[in-house]
Design goal:
Layout (H helix, E strand, L loop, with lengths): L1 E4 L11 E5 L7 H17 L3 E7 L2 H5 L11 H10 L4 E6 L2 H4 L3 H10 L4 E6 L13 H11 L2 E4 L16 H10 L2 H8 L3 E8 L4 H5 L4 E5 L9 E9 L2 E10 L10 E6 L11 E11 L7 H19 L4
Parallel strand pairs: 1-4, 2-3, 2-5, 3-4, 5-6
Antiparallel strand pairs: 7-8, 7-12, 8-11, 9-10, 9-12, 10-11
Helix pairs in contact: 5-6, 7-8
Length: 315
Amino acid sequence: MQRWRGLEEIPEGWGRSVVTIGSYDGVHRGHQLIIGRAVDRARELGVPSVVVTFDPHPSEVVRPGSHPPLLAPHHRRSVLMAELGVDAVLVLPFTKEFSKLSPADFVVKVLVDRLHARVVVEGPNFRFGHKAAGDVALLTELGGTYDYEVEVVDLYVRGEAGGGVPFSSTLVRRLVAEGDVAGAREILGRPHRVEGVVVRGAQRGRELGYPTANVETLPHTAIPADGVYAGWLEADGELMPAAISVGTNPQFDGTERTVEAYAIDRTGLNLYGLHVAVDFLARLRGQQRFDTIEELLEGIADDVEQSRRMTGPAG
């Protein structure tokens, strides 16, 4: 899969293509429907499929300080899109100047002049251009002028557990913030993932017999609510069952919020300095302070055993 940053990286002589545009944070099941349809149409027409997305998130440029928690960094989104069969991802640097493009200018600059769109596939609520003035109706109208077709994909609706609302990144962020990683997994189609570099912490886990990888998460990461979770730790391409702690470590009067993962039954791991991923399967309990170290150790042992049963063999 090709990955371009900025319009200038699109190869000269790029022909017609099927395009879909959006932030696509998380590449959840609703996004997968839209992107999958774009891939299918591209294959039917014998042209490449292109996903256009933005960095930073448009809200941070339009309303500084409002950057939403991110469900997946751009490199992770690219991997997920490649798995869906996408031929190219175009990451557009979203600037103040870019945000002021009218809907028509956006269409000409991106879809017509550079990507030569033949078909544009979007969800029903797609908005574009200055102050989000453009909608699917305008996109379709402009398609008549600039020789592209628009196809709208209706998003599936979650069942009773989700209150009948469509798949959305906003809903996933709320569920993650509440610690409902099982609900988030239902919408994402996979466990919620947090990434970062392993750094040295207080090393209390090592002293207690449960050495953890202290993950310095990427900026704006959507981190689950404080508590203990079952999941996996991925390092150097290896997926290991893990018990995961999120919080300030009240047992030792901690103040800094951390994400720490204990790779179950693994000894001698040296992960310092490595970029790792932590996948959250289920929440076991909230964060708590035990009366004694002995009770803490009993609690950790129970967390580890639950995690072991829930995750099973790695992979």
